[in-house]
């Protein structure tokens, strides 16, 4: 959600954000109900007016459901990209580490040790709990890339052959994977779409409350369940979109397997 208040609530956790969503939707429902009660038509025209409002409300609910499904699609796509990039990066790191074993001289073991440190930094980046923890890990990644590339340059200048070329290509792939992963972690559902979903939910729930106001029946149990479902669906989008806040996290196991494999080869 692009609202500053909502971003502040996300810093407190998903529970605070979910409460904000449920409360705002409940207020929209209550406001619509009160307006509906004030504008309730006479008994002679009540059936015709309620039918018109019901038709419009059904259309709004359908459009809101479409927006919700579209937002979930965006969020799920970004989650799957982050998930696949973790595996790609783990494979790239493992390949580069193996190719250092083909290098003669002290540079091979030196690069291998640096790549092991690099893998641990990338693992820490993947499991970081908040965005505040990311900056030092990015700096550590950049520093290790510079050190590894410096050793690779020395090897390439001393012995320009197919082995060093393969090593350089593997290192390029490893560095590119970190950039792709960093970008994927910063790519969330477009704020414009989230704003449209939130405002659409407020208007639609308000219209539903207005319809109930015309009939004079609150339907507390059913409306509470509906608001819980809509709040839950919107929080699912937020959870998928924000990789370091919620409970849906990208599995870092491929990087953990790569690190474990360093001591077995």
Would you write up a description of this structure?
The chain is mainly α. The chain has two domains: about 5-75 and about 190-240; about 85-185 and about 250-260, Four Helix Bundle (Hemerythrin (Met), subunit A) (Up-down Bundle). The protein has helices spanning about 5-10, 15-40, 45-100, 105-125, 135-160, 160-185, 190-215, 220-240, 255-260.
What's this, in brief?
The chain is mainly alpha-helical. The protein has helices spanning 4-12, 14-38, 46-100, 107-127, 134-158, 162-186, 191-215, 220-241, 253-262.
Q: Number of helical segments?
A: 9
What kind of sheet is the major sheet?
none
- Compute the gyration radius: what is it? 27 Å
The overall average pLDDT, rounded, is 85
Q: Identify the overall geometry.
A: rod-shaped
Return the string of H and E elements.
Answer: HHHHHHHHH
Helical residues, percent: over 70%
Which band does the percent of strand residues land in? under 5%
What is the domain total for the residues? 2
The helix/strand class is: mainly alpha
Low-confidence stretches: none
| Secondary structure tally: strands | 0
Q: Give the N-to-C terminal Cα separation.
A: 47 Å
Give structural attributes.
mainly alpha, 9 helices, 265 residues, Four Helix Bundle (Hemerythrin (Met), subunit A)
Write the layout of secondary structure elements.
Blueprint: H1 4-12, H2 14-38, H3 46-100, H4 107-127, H5 134-158, H6 162-186, H7 191-215, H8 220-241, H9 253-262
Helix pairs in contact: 1-2, 2-7, 2-8, 3-4, 3-6, 3-7, 3-8, 3-9, 4-5, 4-9, 5-6
């Amino acid at each position: 959600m692009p609202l500053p208040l909502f971003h502040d609530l996300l810093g407190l956790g998903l529970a605070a954000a979910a409460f904000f969503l449920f409360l705002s939707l409940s207020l929209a429902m209550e406001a619509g109900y009160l307006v509906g009660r004030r504008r309730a038509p006479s008994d002679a025209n009540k059936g015709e007016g309620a039918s018109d409002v019901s038709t419009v409300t059904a259309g709004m609910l359908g459009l809101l459901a479409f927006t919700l499904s579209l937002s979930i699609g965006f969020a799920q796509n970004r989650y799957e990209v982050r998930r696949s990039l973790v595996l790609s990066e783990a494979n790239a790191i493992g390949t580069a580490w193996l190719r250092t074993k083909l290098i003669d001289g002290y540079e091979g073991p030196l690069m291998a040790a640096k790549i092991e440190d690099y893998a641990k930094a990338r693992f820490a980046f993947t499991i970081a709990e908040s965005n505040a923890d990311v900056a030092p890990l990015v700096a550590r990644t950049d520093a290790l890339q510079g050190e590894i590339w410096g050793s690779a340059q020395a090897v390439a200048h001393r012995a320009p052959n197919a082995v060093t070329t393969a090593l350089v290509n593997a290192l390029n792939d490893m560095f590119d994977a970190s950039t792709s992963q960093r970008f994927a972690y910063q790519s969330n559902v477009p704020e414009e779409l989230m704003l449209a979903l939130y405002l659409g939910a407020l208007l639609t729930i308000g219209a539903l409350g207005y319809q109930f106001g015309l009939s004079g029946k609150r339907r507390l149990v059913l409306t509470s369940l509906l608001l819980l479902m809509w709040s839950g669906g919107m929080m699912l989008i937020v959870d998928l979109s924000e990789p370091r806040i919620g409970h849906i996290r990208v599995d870092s196991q491929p990087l953990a397997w790569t690190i474990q494999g360093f001591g077995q080869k």
